[in-house]
Amino acid sequence: MTAAQVLPTPNLKDQVSAAEWQTRVDLAACYRLIALYGWDDLIFTHISAKVPGSDEFLINPFGLMFHEISASSLVKIDLAGNKLMDSPFNINPAGYTIHSAVHEVRHDVACVLHIHTAAGIAVSAQKQGLLPLSQQSLFVLSSLAYHGYEGVALNHDEKARLQADLGDKNFMILPNHGLLSAAGSIADAFLMMFTLQRACEIQVMAQSGGAELIHIPQQILDGAKAMLAGVMRSPQGMGGALPWPALLRKLDQQMPGYAE
């Protein structure tokens, strides 16, 4: 069942620009990929994407499961949280706080992805945070920030502190809360979250064995950080565009309807 069948949702393809429609399709696909990989949290958590050429952004309709979200059901809002098109859906207030905070100050970021996975929260609850235990962790540690838990993100005063903690980083661990990626494209944000999530899964599994762990040497970390910092600053981004078409084919086979 698609989002359009859950509640009456008119198809918006002819009401928005071609660039916005493509963003809507990719963002809806991203939501469904999160569901497909089992990283969703019922109707909670959120992904946002900027409408190209503006400060407006798209976010999930609060109340729909991620596998139900379609291009037309996404809600367009401004930085103040005002809905900019008629929609039967509201938005998650905590989602607005977190995502508007990033979009306000990071003009290089087109997509912000936030999840509450068990492995991500487990690592976020550890004092040392993400450890250099895997090749996946190298990518994350090259651009990782932390933002301390302040309760459910409903206090708009928290935005300034989140902005300061994120700085120019592309990954964030929110202790006792979850994971966040911020990237120049939806495809990159998904690939980055895939990498962060996998690094957390590996860490929790490695720790559960009870054996002494091998940390990646500092000189390798330093070299990787310099290399990956250059990759993140490149016009090609993190390379999310490479697996994205294959991921969409996977969705077309298993969870069609996102491009409605």
Structural class: alpha+beta
The quaternary structure here is single chain
Mean pLDDT: 92
> How much of the polypeptide forms β-strand, as a percent range?
5-15%
Reading the helices and strands in chain order gives HHEEEHEHHEHEEHHH
Describe the protein's architecture and organization.
This protein is of the alpha+beta class and 260 residues long. It has nine helices and seven strands, in the order H-H-E-E-E-H-E-H-H-E-H-E-E-H-H-H. The chain has a seven-stranded mixed beta sheet, with helices on both faces. Helix 6 links the parallel strand 5 and strand 6. The longest helix has 23 residues. It is globular and about 55 Å long.
What order do the helices and strands come in, and which of them pair?
Blueprint: H1 3-6, H2 18-36, E1 46-50, E2 57-59, E3 75-77, H3 93-105, E4 111-115, H4 118-124, H5 135-141, E5 144-146, H6 158-166, E6 171-174, E7 178-183, H7 186-208, H8 218-233, H9 244-254
Parallel strand pairs: 5-6
Antiparallel strand pairs: 1-2, 1-4, 2-3, 4-7, 6-7
Helix pairs in contact: 2-9, 3-6, 4-7, 5-7
What attributes does this structure have?
seven-stranded mixed β-sheet; globular; 9 helices; about 260 residues; alpha+beta; single chain
Summarize the structure.
With 260 residues, the protein is of the alpha+beta class.
